[in-house]
Fold:
Amino acid sequence: MTDPRFSGIGMTSARTRDRLIQRLRDQGITNLTVLDRIRNLPRHIFMDEALASRAYEDIALPIGFGQTISQPYIVARMTEALLNGPALKQVLEVGTGCGYQTAVLAPLVERIYTIERIEGLQKRARLRLKELGIRNVRFKVGDGSIGWRTQAPFDGILVAAAPLVVPEELIAQLAVGGRLIVPAGPEGKQQLLCLVRGEQGIERRVLAEVSFVPLVGGVG
Structure:
């Protein structure tokens, strides 16, 4: 990464990033690989230049199309939960967004299949990941609530928006031993869930109370 935009200056400096990592530690993130990835990944390139000075605050920020880049704590929490088990080969991401979560996860798994319903957002994400030299991601514009049947089963599935209930299609696309990290529930009552497919069925755990945008079906 030789592009000078990646190193950043001022509010995007290493010191600013280190303060973010300490905040994530204080909130309970313990996976050192995840923390190192978030420290080293230039979050500011995933948003408009006007907001770059706020890139390393622990907040969600607008990225256009009525969408936001997720709060770093949420990205770290979901990534840590997804990695909490056997090594991941195939991962499905529902909701590419600006590509930041994709970029955090990409070096930590063999391959990511990522779906985004808004084509303009996905085009931006493709460009950013290409600039970062990330090559193990396949993109699709489509309805993430139905998954990516032709590439299933997945060792991990990460969903970046909240359905009212967890889609059965996504559960069905989990491999045995696979983990599905998904927020679910109505606005104001959402929970971040971890579903693990075992030989005898699905084990479900609540990880945290959260607030996500709703998972919308279709394309557009």
